[in-house]
């Protein structure tokens, strides 16, 4: 089969399309024909060497949607989707014609979604669900402020919060495009602006109370504003750090507000762990309550380097490879 491979870290130019042995079916592993696989910023960071658990040489790619071609009889021919913090890092990923998937990680693709759409869901929605529902334990009616609202995770957080009767305040350099799912569920938008006290603006929009949950999908430079926007006993979810990972925190303000700071790393979720979360979210996609993020471009496997470069250049919308 053909697979995208890298044996050293660097820019997308280190990626090579190679002929490699096809994965073999075992009692524990099924083989899936990859119809679509998205390219995430974390895939680009992986190739660049920013993920310290990557084992080389490797086929990258976390998210996928495809059809089981070898495995348990009841699964053969079934359309599935998946993702994983191990996928593309410590086990070969989805940017190939075939991928080996643990039988325990096989999850039926929602029929409502095309392969391209299903391939854009994994990392973004699993990270959002893991942080908002499982870690911060969102309660219906709470206000969620989302830093990075135009990003993949931020847009997913907004939809999940809205589906659980939360009020959503989106924060970003610019508002979401009107055609995006996030735009349809926002109650308020706050633009990053040096002249605006973002934390105070969150308080103003919540009658002085602050947000019960701030989901910071940016991190680092936004952390002081995120903490300042928290309600008493509010929960700050942190998934990344842009720029310097070192942040000064007013400890007195932190403990007096009884704020909680919660770190979330979807890289710790295996393909099997992620499948369980996709199964929980599948009914929301089937009903149309959750919608995949817009697809900006699709590429063949031959053009995978260009797909990676598009993501590295912050192309608006999701980028999909069709092996």
UniProtKB/TrEMBL annotation:
Protein keywords: NADP
Domain Enoyl reductase (ER): start-end pairs: 10-321
UniProt cross-references to Pfam families, sorted A to Z: ADH_N, ADH_zinc_N
Coiled-coil portions: none
InterPro entries in the cross-refs: ADH-like_C, ADH-like_N, ER, GroES-like_sf, NAD(P)-bd_dom_sf, Zinc-ADH_QOR/CCCR
Superkingdom to which the source organism belongs: Bacteria
The protein, known as: Zinc-binding alcohol dehydrogenase family protein
């Amino acid at each position: 089969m053909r697979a995208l491979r890298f044996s050293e870290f660097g820019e997308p130019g280190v990626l090579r399309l190679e002929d490699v042995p096809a994965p073999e079916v075992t009692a524990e592993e099924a083989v899936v024909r990859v119809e679509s696989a998205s390219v995430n910023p974390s895939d680009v960071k992986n190739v660049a060497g920013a993920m310290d658990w990557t084992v080389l040489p490797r086929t990258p790619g976390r998210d996928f949607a495809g059809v089981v071609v070898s495995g348990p009889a009841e699964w053969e021919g079934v359309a599935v989707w998946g993702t994983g913090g191990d996928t593309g890092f410590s086990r070969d990923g989805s940017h190939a014609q075939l991928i080996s998937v643990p039988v325990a990680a096989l999850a039926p693709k929602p029929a409502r979604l095309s392969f391209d759409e299903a391939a854009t869901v994994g990392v973004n929605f699993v990270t959002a669900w893991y942080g908002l529902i499982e870690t911060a334990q969102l309660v219906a009616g709470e206000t969620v402020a989302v830093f990075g609202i135009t990003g993949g995770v931020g847009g997913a957080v907004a939809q999940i919060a809205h589906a659980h009767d939360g009020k959503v305040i989106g924060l970003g350099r610019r508002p979401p495009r009107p055609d995006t799912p996030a735009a349809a569920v926002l109650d308020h938008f706050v633009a990053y602006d040096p002249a605006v006290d973002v934390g105070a603006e969150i308080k103003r929009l919540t009658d002085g109370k602050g947000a019960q949950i701030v989901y910071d999908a940016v991190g680092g430079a936004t952390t002081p504003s995120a903490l300042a926007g928290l309600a008493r006993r509010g929960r700050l979810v942190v998934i990344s750090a842009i720029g310097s990972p070192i942040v000064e925190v007013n400890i007195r303000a932190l403990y007096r507000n009884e704020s909680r700071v919660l770190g979330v790393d979807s890289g710790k979720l295996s393909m099997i762990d992620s499948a369980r979360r996709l199964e929980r979210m599948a009914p929301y996609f089937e009903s149309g309550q959750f919608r995949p993020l817009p697809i900006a471009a699709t590429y063949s496997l031959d053009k995978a380097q260009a797909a990676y470069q598009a993501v590295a250049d912050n192309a608006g919308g999701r980028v999909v490879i069709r092996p």
